[in-house]
Amino acid sequence: MARRAALAAGVATGVLVLGAGGYLTADAYDVVPGFVTLEPVPDPPLPFPTVPGAVEAPGLEPVLDEVDPSAPVPDAAELTALAEAAADHVWMGDSVGIVVADQLTGEVLVDLDGDQPHTPASTAKVATGAAALSALGPDATLTTSVVQGAGGRLVLVGGGDIMLAAGAGDPEATNGRAGLADLAVEVTRELRLAGVTEVTLGVDDTLFSGPQAAPGWDEDVIRLGYVAPVTALAVNIAKTRDEPYPPRHADPSLHTGETFAALLREQGIAVTGTVGREAVPAGARTVGAVESAPMREVVRYALHTSDNAVTEALGRMVALERGLPASFQGATRAVLAELVRLGLDTDGAVLADTSGLAEGSLLPPALLVDLVLHAADPQNAALLPAVVDLPVAGWQGTLAGRFGSPPASGLVRAKTGSLPGVTSLAGTVTTSSGRSLVFAVIADDTPPGGQLGPSRVIDTFVQQLAGCSCDLPG
Predict the structure, then answer these.
(1) pLDDT at res. 44
(2) In sequence order, what are the residues at sequence separation of 6 or more whose Cβ sits closer than 8 angstroms to the Cβ of residue 317?
(3) Which of 42, 56, 167, 341 is the 20 to 30 Å CA partner of 436?
(4) How many Å apart are CA 183 and CA 166, to the nearest integer?
(5) What CATH number belongs to 143-293?
Protein backbone atom coordinates (compact mmCIF):
# COMPACT_ATOMS: atom_id res chain seq x y z
CA MET A 1 0.00 0.00 0.00
CA ALA A 2 1.47 3.35 -1.01
CA ARG A 3 1.36 6.17 1.49
CA ARG A 4 -0.72 9.17 0.43
CA ALA A 5 2.14 11.62 0.62
CA ALA A 6 5.83 10.92 1.24
CA LEU A 7 7.89 13.30 3.30
CA ALA A 8 10.97 14.96 1.94
CA ALA A 9 13.97 12.80 2.74
CA GLY A 10 16.69 14.14 4.90
CA VAL A 11 14.61 16.42 7.11
CA ALA A 12 14.33 15.67 10.80
CA THR A 13 12.76 17.39 13.73
CA GLY A 14 14.78 17.93 16.89
CA VAL A 15 13.43 18.86 20.29
CA LEU A 16 15.61 21.05 22.42
CA VAL A 17 15.72 21.56 26.14
CA LEU A 18 17.34 24.64 27.63
CA GLY A 19 19.02 23.90 30.92
CA ALA A 20 18.53 26.29 33.82
CA GLY A 21 21.15 28.98 34.08
CA GLY A 22 21.64 32.05 36.19
CA TYR A 23 23.03 35.50 35.55
CA LEU A 24 24.32 38.18 37.94
CA THR A 25 22.85 41.64 37.50
CA ALA A 26 23.51 44.93 39.26
CA ASP A 27 21.82 48.36 39.29
CA ALA A 28 23.68 51.61 39.94
CA TYR A 29 21.85 54.68 41.27
CA ASP A 30 23.68 58.01 40.89
CA VAL A 31 22.36 60.57 43.39
CA VAL A 32 23.29 64.14 42.47
CA PRO A 33 22.75 66.84 45.12
CA GLY A 34 20.76 69.88 44.10
CA PHE A 35 22.27 73.24 43.31
CA VAL A 36 20.66 74.81 46.38
CA THR A 37 21.10 72.68 49.47
CA LEU A 38 22.28 72.84 53.03
CA GLU A 39 23.24 69.17 52.99
CA PRO A 40 26.97 68.36 52.96
CA VAL A 41 28.41 67.14 49.72
CA PRO A 42 28.48 63.35 49.92
CA ASP A 43 31.62 61.34 49.63
CA PRO A 44 32.54 60.18 46.15
CA PRO A 45 30.64 57.03 45.23
CA LEU A 46 32.31 53.68 45.54
CA PRO A 47 33.56 52.14 42.33
CA PHE A 48 30.93 50.22 40.35
CA PRO A 49 31.11 46.61 41.50
CA THR A 50 32.59 44.10 39.13
CA VAL A 51 31.20 40.66 38.60
CA PRO A 52 33.72 38.17 39.99
CA GLY A 53 33.00 35.64 37.32
CA ALA A 54 30.40 35.39 34.62
CA VAL A 55 28.10 32.40 34.79
CA GLU A 56 28.00 30.84 31.39
CA ALA A 57 24.60 29.65 30.21
CA PRO A 58 24.49 25.99 29.28
CA GLY A 59 24.10 25.24 25.63
CA LEU A 60 21.11 23.70 23.93
CA GLU A 61 21.12 19.94 24.11
CA PRO A 62 18.87 17.73 22.01
CA VAL A 63 16.67 15.30 23.90
CA LEU A 64 16.84 12.98 20.92
CA ASP A 65 19.58 12.81 18.35
CA GLU A 66 18.72 14.10 14.90
CA VAL A 67 17.69 11.41 12.48
CA ASP A 68 20.41 10.60 9.98
CA PRO A 69 18.92 10.39 6.45
CA SER A 70 21.66 7.94 5.56
CA ALA A 71 20.69 5.55 8.38
CA PRO A 72 19.56 2.21 6.95
CA VAL A 73 15.86 1.52 6.51
CA PRO A 74 14.91 -1.74 8.29
CA ASP A 75 14.03 -4.67 6.07
CA ALA A 76 10.28 -4.66 5.41
CA ALA A 77 10.02 -8.45 5.34
CA GLU A 78 11.73 -8.78 8.71
CA LEU A 79 9.49 -6.13 10.27
CA THR A 80 6.41 -7.74 8.77
CA ALA A 81 7.38 -11.10 10.29
CA LEU A 82 7.71 -9.43 13.69
CA ALA A 83 4.35 -7.74 13.26
CA GLU A 84 2.65 -10.97 12.25
CA ALA A 85 4.03 -12.72 15.33
CA ALA A 86 2.72 -9.91 17.54
CA ALA A 87 -0.69 -9.89 15.86
CA ASP A 88 -0.98 -13.68 16.23
CA HIS A 89 -0.15 -13.61 19.95
CA VAL A 90 -2.95 -15.07 22.04
CA TRP A 91 -3.10 -11.95 24.23
CA MET A 92 -3.88 -9.75 21.22
CA GLY A 93 -7.18 -11.35 20.23
CA ASP A 94 -8.63 -11.74 16.77
CA SER A 95 -8.79 -8.12 15.55
CA VAL A 96 -5.41 -6.45 15.12
CA GLY A 97 -4.20 -3.72 12.79
CA ILE A 98 -0.53 -2.76 12.45
CA VAL A 99 1.10 -0.23 10.13
CA VAL A 100 4.75 0.84 10.16
CA ALA A 101 6.20 3.44 7.80
CA ASP A 102 9.52 5.18 7.31
CA GLN A 103 9.18 8.74 8.57
CA LEU A 104 11.50 10.36 6.04
CA THR A 105 10.11 8.78 2.88
CA GLY A 106 6.62 7.66 3.88
CA GLU A 107 7.37 4.16 2.56
CA VAL A 108 5.13 1.57 4.18
CA LEU A 109 7.19 -1.23 5.70
CA VAL A 110 4.38 -3.13 7.46
CA ASP A 111 0.69 -3.24 6.60
CA LEU A 112 -1.46 -5.72 8.49
CA ASP A 113 -5.12 -4.84 8.14
CA GLY A 114 -4.04 -1.21 8.08
CA ASP A 115 -6.92 0.17 6.03
CA GLN A 116 -9.59 -1.60 8.10
CA PRO A 117 -11.26 0.55 10.78
CA HIS A 118 -10.53 -0.45 14.38
CA THR A 119 -11.60 0.99 17.72
CA PRO A 120 -8.83 3.51 18.47
CA ALA A 121 -9.46 4.25 22.16
CA SER A 122 -7.37 7.27 23.19
CA THR A 123 -5.13 7.23 20.12
CA ALA A 124 -8.06 9.20 18.66
CA LYS A 125 -6.76 12.14 20.71
CA VAL A 126 -3.91 12.51 18.20
CA ALA A 127 -6.53 13.32 15.56
CA THR A 128 -8.33 15.81 17.79
CA GLY A 129 -5.10 17.49 18.86
CA ALA A 130 -3.90 17.85 15.28
CA ALA A 131 -7.29 19.18 14.21
CA ALA A 132 -7.21 21.81 16.97
CA LEU A 133 -3.70 22.92 16.01
CA SER A 134 -4.72 23.09 12.36
CA ALA A 135 -8.03 24.91 12.77
CA LEU A 136 -7.20 27.31 15.61
CA GLY A 137 -3.42 27.58 15.34
CA PRO A 138 -0.83 26.70 17.99
CA ASP A 139 -0.83 30.21 19.52
CA ALA A 140 -4.59 30.56 19.98
CA THR A 141 -5.91 31.04 23.51
CA LEU A 142 -9.37 30.69 25.06
CA THR A 143 -10.93 33.70 26.78
CA THR A 144 -13.02 33.60 29.95
CA SER A 145 -14.68 36.96 30.53
CA VAL A 146 -17.08 38.83 32.77
CA VAL A 147 -19.58 41.27 31.32
CA GLN A 148 -21.68 43.87 33.12
CA GLY A 149 -25.24 44.75 32.23
CA ALA A 150 -27.30 47.46 33.81
CA GLY A 151 -26.14 48.34 37.32
CA GLY A 152 -24.56 45.42 39.07
CA ARG A 153 -25.70 42.65 36.75
CA LEU A 154 -22.66 40.44 36.02
CA VAL A 155 -22.36 37.39 33.81
CA LEU A 156 -19.35 35.04 33.77
CA VAL A 157 -18.95 33.94 30.15
CA GLY A 158 -17.32 30.62 29.31
CA GLY A 159 -14.98 30.57 26.34
CA GLY A 160 -14.04 26.90 26.34
CA ASP A 161 -11.31 27.01 29.00
CA ILE A 162 -12.10 24.22 31.45
CA MET A 163 -8.73 24.46 33.19
CA LEU A 164 -9.34 27.64 35.16
CA ALA A 165 -7.54 28.01 38.49
CA ALA A 166 -9.72 28.57 41.53
CA GLY A 167 -7.13 31.05 42.77
CA ALA A 168 -4.46 33.07 41.01
CA GLY A 169 -3.32 31.95 37.59
CA ASP A 170 0.09 30.36 37.15
CA PRO A 171 2.01 31.60 34.08
CA GLU A 172 4.07 28.40 34.07
CA ALA A 173 1.08 26.03 34.20
CA THR A 174 -1.24 24.75 31.53
CA ASN A 175 -3.98 23.58 33.86
CA GLY A 176 -4.48 26.78 35.82
CA ARG A 177 -2.88 29.34 33.50
CA ALA A 178 -5.95 31.59 33.82
CA GLY A 179 -7.00 32.31 37.40
CA LEU A 180 -10.44 33.22 38.71
CA ALA A 181 -8.83 35.20 41.53
CA ASP A 182 -7.07 37.40 38.98
CA LEU A 183 -10.35 37.84 37.15
CA ALA A 184 -12.08 38.81 40.39
CA VAL A 185 -9.45 41.48 41.13
CA GLU A 186 -9.81 42.94 37.64
CA VAL A 187 -13.61 42.97 37.81
CA THR A 188 -13.60 44.49 41.30
CA ARG A 189 -11.38 47.34 40.12
CA GLU A 190 -13.81 48.14 37.29
CA LEU A 191 -16.83 47.94 39.59
CA ARG A 192 -15.33 50.30 42.15
CA LEU A 193 -14.45 52.80 39.46
CA ALA A 194 -18.13 52.76 38.53
CA GLY A 195 -19.21 53.00 42.17
CA VAL A 196 -20.76 49.51 42.21
CA THR A 197 -20.38 47.45 45.38
CA GLU A 198 -23.30 45.03 45.06
CA VAL A 199 -23.96 42.67 42.15
CA THR A 200 -25.84 39.64 40.96
CA LEU A 201 -23.95 36.92 39.11
CA GLY A 202 -24.94 34.48 36.40
CA VAL A 203 -22.99 32.18 34.10
CA ASP A 204 -23.29 31.87 30.34
CA ASP A 205 -21.93 28.56 29.03
CA THR A 206 -23.94 28.52 25.80
CA LEU A 207 -20.78 28.41 23.70
CA PHE A 208 -21.11 24.62 23.83
CA SER A 209 -24.40 23.03 22.87
CA GLY A 210 -26.13 19.67 22.96
CA PRO A 211 -25.86 16.99 25.65
CA GLN A 212 -23.00 17.14 28.15
CA ALA A 213 -22.40 13.36 27.96
CA ALA A 214 -21.96 11.28 24.84
CA PRO A 215 -24.50 8.53 24.14
CA GLY A 216 -21.61 6.06 23.88
CA TRP A 217 -20.28 6.74 27.37
CA ASP A 218 -20.96 4.26 30.14
CA GLU A 219 -23.24 5.64 32.82
CA ASP A 220 -20.53 5.72 35.48
CA VAL A 221 -17.62 7.33 33.60
CA ILE A 222 -18.38 10.77 35.04
CA ARG A 223 -18.93 9.42 38.54
CA LEU A 224 -15.65 7.50 38.34
CA GLY A 225 -13.85 10.58 37.10
CA TYR A 226 -12.82 9.43 33.63
CA VAL A 227 -14.45 12.51 32.12
CA ALA A 228 -16.39 15.59 33.17
CA PRO A 229 -19.69 16.85 31.78
CA VAL A 230 -18.67 18.79 28.69
CA THR A 231 -19.24 22.48 29.35
CA ALA A 232 -17.58 25.70 28.24
CA LEU A 233 -16.57 26.67 31.77
CA ALA A 234 -14.87 24.68 34.54
CA VAL A 235 -12.32 24.93 37.35
CA ASN A 236 -9.51 22.36 37.25
CA ILE A 237 -11.32 20.24 34.64
CA ALA A 238 -14.27 19.97 37.08
CA LYS A 239 -12.29 17.76 39.47
CA THR A 240 -13.63 17.49 43.02
CA ARG A 241 -10.15 16.55 44.27
CA ASP A 242 -6.66 17.06 42.91
CA GLU A 243 -6.21 13.53 41.61
CA PRO A 244 -5.92 12.12 38.09
CA TYR A 245 -9.42 10.59 38.13
CA PRO A 246 -11.56 11.93 40.99
CA PRO A 247 -15.34 12.33 40.74
CA ARG A 248 -16.25 15.40 38.68
CA HIS A 249 -18.64 18.18 39.57
CA ALA A 250 -22.09 17.44 38.21
CA ASP A 251 -22.46 21.01 36.90
CA PRO A 252 -19.00 22.46 36.20
CA SER A 253 -20.36 25.80 35.00
CA LEU A 254 -22.39 26.55 38.11
CA HIS A 255 -19.52 25.36 40.32
CA THR A 256 -17.26 27.83 38.53
CA GLY A 257 -19.81 30.60 39.01
CA GLU A 258 -20.12 29.88 42.73
CA THR A 259 -16.33 29.85 43.07
CA PHE A 260 -16.13 33.22 41.34
CA ALA A 261 -18.89 34.68 43.53
CA ALA A 262 -16.90 33.72 46.64
CA LEU A 263 -13.81 35.43 45.21
CA LEU A 264 -15.76 38.63 44.54
CA ARG A 265 -16.98 38.61 48.13
CA GLU A 266 -13.38 38.31 49.29
CA GLN A 267 -12.69 41.49 47.33
CA GLY A 268 -15.47 43.29 49.17
CA ILE A 269 -18.15 43.02 46.50
CA ALA A 270 -21.53 41.83 47.78
CA VAL A 271 -23.02 39.11 45.55
CA THR A 272 -26.73 38.76 46.13
CA GLY A 273 -29.03 35.92 45.19
CA THR A 274 -27.98 32.57 43.80
CA VAL A 275 -25.73 31.90 40.84
CA GLY A 276 -27.71 30.58 37.88
CA ARG A 277 -27.50 30.43 34.13
CA GLU A 278 -28.08 33.73 32.41
CA ALA A 279 -27.66 35.04 28.89
CA VAL A 280 -25.33 37.96 28.28
CA PRO A 281 -27.46 41.13 28.63
CA ALA A 282 -27.90 43.33 25.58
CA GLY A 283 -25.38 46.13 25.55
CA ALA A 284 -23.21 44.54 28.24
CA ARG A 285 -19.61 45.68 28.49
CA THR A 286 -16.61 43.50 29.31
CA VAL A 287 -15.20 44.29 32.75
CA GLY A 288 -12.58 41.54 32.95
CA ALA A 289 -11.02 38.69 31.02
CA VAL A 290 -8.33 36.03 31.43
CA GLU A 291 -6.63 33.88 28.80
CA SER A 292 -5.84 30.17 28.76
CA ALA A 293 -2.51 28.64 27.86
CA PRO A 294 -1.86 28.60 24.09
CA MET A 295 -3.33 25.78 22.06
CA ARG A 296 0.00 23.98 21.66
CA GLU A 297 0.25 23.62 25.44
CA VAL A 298 -3.37 22.55 25.83
CA VAL A 299 -2.87 19.88 23.16
CA ARG A 300 0.33 18.73 24.88
CA TYR A 301 -1.54 18.45 28.18
CA ALA A 302 -4.28 16.38 26.55
CA LEU A 303 -1.78 14.05 24.89
CA HIS A 304 0.34 13.60 28.02
CA THR A 305 -2.49 13.09 30.50
CA SER A 306 -4.98 11.54 28.07
CA ASP A 307 -7.62 13.73 29.70
CA ASN A 308 -10.95 13.06 28.03
CA ALA A 309 -12.70 16.26 29.09
CA VAL A 310 -9.95 18.54 27.78
CA THR A 311 -9.97 16.70 24.46
CA GLU A 312 -13.74 17.01 24.17
CA ALA A 313 -13.44 20.76 24.72
CA LEU A 314 -10.79 20.92 22.00
CA GLY A 315 -13.11 19.14 19.58
CA ARG A 316 -15.85 21.68 20.22
CA MET A 317 -13.48 24.57 19.61
CA VAL A 318 -12.60 23.02 16.25
CA ALA A 319 -16.31 22.85 15.46
CA LEU A 320 -16.83 26.52 16.34
CA GLU A 321 -13.85 27.58 14.26
CA ARG A 322 -15.29 25.76 11.25
CA GLY A 323 -18.84 27.05 11.69
CA LEU A 324 -20.38 23.89 13.13
CA PRO A 325 -22.35 23.47 16.37
CA ALA A 326 -20.13 22.93 19.42
CA SER A 327 -21.82 19.62 20.23
CA PHE A 328 -20.73 16.00 20.08
CA GLN A 329 -22.08 15.73 16.54
CA GLY A 330 -20.53 19.00 15.42
CA ALA A 331 -17.17 18.27 17.04
CA THR A 332 -16.78 14.79 15.55
CA ARG A 333 -17.73 16.06 12.10
CA ALA A 334 -15.34 18.98 12.43
CA VAL A 335 -12.34 16.87 13.50
CA LEU A 336 -12.73 14.44 10.60
CA ALA A 337 -13.36 17.30 8.18
CA GLU A 338 -10.16 18.96 9.38
CA LEU A 339 -8.20 15.80 8.59
CA VAL A 340 -9.68 15.89 5.08
CA ARG A 341 -8.62 19.55 4.80
CA LEU A 342 -5.10 18.37 5.61
CA GLY A 343 -5.25 15.99 2.67
CA LEU A 344 -5.70 12.75 4.63
CA ASP A 345 -7.86 9.82 3.56
CA THR A 346 -10.58 9.33 6.18
CA ASP A 347 -12.41 6.46 4.45
CA GLY A 348 -13.84 4.18 7.13
CA ALA A 349 -13.19 6.69 9.93
CA VAL A 350 -16.01 7.29 12.40
CA LEU A 351 -15.90 9.28 15.64
CA ALA A 352 -18.51 8.89 18.38
CA ASP A 353 -16.71 11.55 20.42
CA THR A 354 -13.37 13.35 20.09
CA SER A 355 -11.58 11.68 23.00
CA GLY A 356 -11.90 8.00 22.06
CA LEU A 357 -13.85 7.21 25.22
CA ALA A 358 -17.21 6.44 23.63
CA GLU A 359 -18.17 3.20 21.98
CA GLY A 360 -18.55 3.44 18.23
CA SER A 361 -15.40 5.26 17.14
CA LEU A 362 -13.41 3.59 14.36
CA LEU A 363 -10.09 4.67 12.81
CA PRO A 364 -7.87 2.74 10.39
CA PRO A 365 -4.30 2.36 11.72
CA ALA A 366 -3.12 3.66 8.34
CA LEU A 367 -4.91 6.96 9.02
CA LEU A 368 -3.09 7.39 12.32
CA VAL A 369 0.25 6.72 10.61
CA ASP A 370 -0.58 9.13 7.79
CA LEU A 371 -1.53 11.78 10.34
CA VAL A 372 1.76 11.46 12.22
CA LEU A 373 3.69 11.52 8.94
CA HIS A 374 1.83 14.66 7.90
CA ALA A 375 2.38 16.39 11.24
CA ALA A 376 6.09 15.52 11.15
CA ASP A 377 6.52 17.18 7.76
CA PRO A 378 8.50 20.42 8.32
CA GLN A 379 6.14 22.13 5.87
CA ASN A 380 3.34 21.66 8.41
CA ALA A 381 4.96 23.52 11.31
CA ALA A 382 1.64 24.29 13.04
CA LEU A 383 0.99 20.57 13.46
CA LEU A 384 4.43 19.72 14.83
CA PRO A 385 3.31 19.67 18.50
CA ALA A 386 1.02 16.73 17.66
CA VAL A 387 4.20 14.70 17.10
CA VAL A 388 6.99 16.16 19.23
CA ASP A 389 4.67 16.59 22.23
CA LEU A 390 3.57 12.98 22.34
CA PRO A 391 4.67 11.37 25.63
CA VAL A 392 8.27 10.15 25.61
CA ALA A 393 8.83 6.54 26.68
CA GLY A 394 10.09 6.07 30.21
CA TRP A 395 9.76 9.78 30.96
CA GLN A 396 6.46 11.54 30.32
CA GLY A 397 2.73 11.20 30.75
CA THR A 398 1.09 7.88 30.05
CA LEU A 399 4.41 6.45 28.81
CA ALA A 400 6.33 7.32 31.98
CA GLY A 401 6.11 3.73 33.23
CA ARG A 402 6.62 1.97 29.90
CA PHE A 403 9.70 1.20 27.78
CA GLY A 404 11.95 1.65 30.77
CA SER A 405 14.86 -0.26 29.21
CA PRO A 406 16.95 0.13 26.03
CA PRO A 407 16.77 0.35 23.13
CA ALA A 408 13.33 2.02 23.08
CA SER A 409 13.56 3.96 26.35
CA GLY A 410 13.58 7.66 25.51
CA LEU A 411 13.31 6.91 21.79
CA VAL A 412 9.57 6.30 21.52
CA ARG A 413 7.01 9.09 21.33
CA ALA A 414 3.50 7.69 21.30
CA LYS A 415 -0.11 8.04 22.37
CA THR A 416 -1.58 5.21 24.36
CA GLY A 417 -5.12 3.89 24.14
CA SER A 418 -7.02 1.57 26.45
CA LEU A 419 -10.64 0.52 26.77
CA PRO A 420 -12.21 -2.77 27.82
CA GLY A 421 -11.09 -5.11 25.04
CA VAL A 422 -8.97 -2.45 23.31
CA THR A 423 -5.25 -1.68 23.53
CA SER A 424 -3.57 0.69 21.09
CA LEU A 425 -0.39 2.69 20.60
CA ALA A 426 0.57 5.14 17.83
CA GLY A 427 3.60 7.34 17.38
CA THR A 428 7.27 7.26 16.41
CA VAL A 429 10.30 5.16 17.31
CA THR A 430 13.97 5.66 16.46
CA THR A 431 15.84 2.49 15.60
CA SER A 432 19.23 1.66 17.08
CA SER A 433 20.74 2.51 13.70
CA GLY A 434 19.17 5.96 13.75
CA ARG A 435 16.16 5.56 11.45
CA SER A 436 12.84 7.11 12.51
CA LEU A 437 9.73 4.97 12.00
CA VAL A 438 6.06 5.83 12.41
CA PHE A 439 3.77 3.10 13.71
CA ALA A 440 0.21 2.38 14.81
CA VAL A 441 -0.93 -0.80 16.54
CA ILE A 442 -4.57 -1.41 17.48
CA ALA A 443 -5.88 -4.59 19.08
CA ASP A 444 -9.61 -4.12 19.60
CA ASP A 445 -10.87 -7.58 20.45
CA THR A 446 -8.51 -8.61 23.21
CA PRO A 447 -9.50 -11.51 25.48
CA PRO A 448 -10.76 -10.98 29.05
CA GLY A 449 -8.15 -10.32 31.68
CA GLY A 450 -7.33 -6.66 31.22
CA GLN A 451 -4.87 -4.76 29.07
CA LEU A 452 -1.57 -5.64 30.73
CA GLY A 453 -0.98 -8.62 28.43
CA PRO A 454 -1.73 -6.83 25.13
CA SER A 455 0.32 -3.83 26.30
CA ARG A 456 3.31 -6.09 26.95
CA VAL A 457 3.02 -7.58 23.46
CA ILE A 458 2.77 -4.17 21.82
CA ASP A 459 5.64 -2.78 23.87
CA THR A 460 7.86 -5.72 22.94
CA PHE A 461 7.00 -5.28 19.27
CA VAL A 462 7.96 -1.59 19.42
CA GLN A 463 11.17 -2.57 21.22
CA GLN A 464 11.83 -4.94 18.31
CA LEU A 465 11.25 -2.08 15.89
CA ALA A 466 13.89 -0.14 17.80
CA GLY A 467 16.36 -2.99 17.34
CA CYS A 468 15.82 -5.22 20.34
CA SER A 469 16.36 -8.93 19.76
CA CYS A 470 13.90 -9.70 22.57
CA ASP A 471 11.15 -12.31 22.32
CA LEU A 472 7.45 -11.71 22.77
CA PRO A 473 6.17 -12.38 26.30
CA GLY A 474 4.23 -15.41 27.42
Answers:
(1) 53
(2) 132, 135, 136, 142, 160, 326
(3) 341
(4) 10
(5) 3.50.80.20
Clarify whether 415 is annotated catalytic: no
433 is catalytic: no
- Measured CA to CA, the distance from residue 352 to residue 463 in angstroms comes to 32
The domain locations on the chain are 76-137+297-466, 143-293
410-448 tens-digit pLDDT = 999 999 999 999 999 999 999 999 999 999 999 999 999
CA separation for the pair 471, 450 (Å, rounded): 21
Q: Tell me how far apart the alpha carbons of residues 148 and 310 are, in angstroms, rounded to a whole number.
A: 28
The pTM score is 0.86
| 125 catalytic residue (yes or no) | yes
pLDDT confidence tier of residue 474, bands split at 50, 70 and 90? confident
The pLDDT value given to residue 67: 61
Active-site residue, from 125, 145, 361, 415: 125
Per the CATH hierarchy, to which homologous superfamily does domain 76-137+297-466 belong? DD-peptidase/beta-lactamase superfamily (3.40.710.10)
Q: What angle do CA 294, 393, 71 make, to 5 degrees?
A: 100
Catalytic pick among 122, 292, 327, 355: 122
